[in-house]
Design a protein that fits this description.
35% strand; Rossmann fold; 5 helices; binds S-adenosylmethionine; alpha/beta; S-adenosyl-L-methionine-dependent methyltransferases; seven-stranded mixed beta sheet
C-alpha cells in the first residue's frame, strides 16, 4: 500500500494548504480553463487531489471529482467534501467509468510518477479520459532546466498545532530529486520529530511537451506565471475531420 503521505496527511492541511495561495492558484486555473474553452459546470477531474486543497475554490464552478493514490489523503478529502466522488487510483494506470471536460494535476504532483515512461503512461491515461475538446492542465514538479538544490523553511502556528518545517531538496540522481522532510510537531504540550524522504521525477520541458503531443494532445499554452506554482502545460484533445 502507498504510504508516502500516511504521516504527513495528518497535518498536511495545517502545514501546506494556505487559503490565500490555494485560492489564487485555483482562480488562475479557472481563468486558464475558461480561456481555453472549458465551460462552467463542466466535469472536472482533479488528479493527485490530495486532501482537496483546491476544491473549495473550484466546486462552485464545476462538477468536481478527485483521484489520488493515498487512502489517507482521500479519507480527509472525503470528510471535507462528502458530496463529491473520489477515486483511489494511480496516475499511471487509472481507469474511470466516465470521461471529463477538463483534467488538472497541480502542485507538481505529476513528479511522483518518477520516470519518463510513467509520465507518458499518465498522459496516455489523461488523454483517454478527455472528451473531444477536453483540456488538461498540469503543473510540472520543476524541470531539468530550472531545478536547483534548495532548503525550504516554513512554519505553521495554530492554537492546537505548531509545526516547524525544513525540507532538503537535492538532486539524487540525474533525473531523481530527493526531498527529505524534517518536521517538528508541537501538540498537546509535546514536541515530536518526523523525518521522511520521498523521490520525485525531474523531467525536461521537452519531455512534458512530447508526453502530451505523442498522445495526440495539442499543446495550447505553456503558462509561466508565478500564481500557479511551477507554471502549467495546457493541452487539448483536438478532434480533426469532424
Ligand atoms: C504534494 S501532494 C499534492 C496534493 C494536492 N494536489 C495539493 O496541491 O495539495 C501530492 C499528492 O500526489 C499523490 N500521489 C503521489 N503519487 C501518485 C500517483 N502515482 N497517482 C495518484 N496520486 C499520487 C499523493 O498521494 C499526494 O496526495
Amino acid at each position: 500500500m502507498y504510504s508516502d503521505f500516511d504521516v504527513i496527511s495528518t497535518y498536511y492541511d495545517a502545514l501546506y494548504v494556505k487559503d490565500k495561495e490555494y485560492s489564487l492558484e485555483a482562480a488562475k486555473v479557472k481563468e486558464l480553463l475558461t480561456k481555453h474553452g472549458v465551460h462552467l459546470q463542466a466535469d472536472l477531474l482533479v488528479l493527485a487531489c490530495g486532501t482537496g486543497g483546491h476544491i473549495p475554490y473550484l466546486n462552485d464552478h464545476y462538477h468536481v471529482s478527485g483521484l489520488d493514490l493515498s487512502d489517507d489523503m482521500l479519507t480527509l478529502a472525503r470528510k471535507k467534501f462528502p458530496g463529491l466522488r473520489f477515486h483511489l487510483g494511480n496516475l499511471i494506470d487509472f481507469e474511470l467509468e466516465m470521461d471529463f471536460d477538463a483534467i488538472i494535476c497541480l502542485y507538481g504532483s505529476i513528479g511522483f510518477v518518477k520516470t519518463v515512461d510513467n509520465l507518458r503512461a499518465a498522459m496516455e491515461r489523461i488523454a483517454a479520459h478527455l472528451r473531444p475538446d477536453g483540456l488538461v492542465l498540469i503543473t510540472p514538479w520543476s524541470t531539468v532546466e530550472d531545478f536547483k538544490d534548495i532548503i525550504v523553511v516554513d512554519a505553521a502556528d495554530r492554537p492546537d498545532l505548531k509545526i516547524a518545517r525544513m525540507e532538503q531538496v537535492r538532486l539524487k540522481e540525474p533525473k531523481i530529486v530527493e526531498v527529505t522532510f524534517h518536521h517538528l510537531l508541537g501538540k498537546d504540550n509535546n514536541v515530536t520529530y518526523h523525518k521522511q524522504s520521498v523521490e520525485i521525477g525531474l523531467f525536461s520541458r521537452q519531455e512534458y511537451l512530447s508526453a502530451m503531443t505523442d498522445t495526440g494532445l495539442k499543446v495550447v499554452e505553456e503558462y509561466t506565471g508565478t500564481d500557479v506554482r511551477g507554471g502549467a502545460y495546457i493541452g487539448k484533445r483536438v478532434i480533426v475531420d469532424r
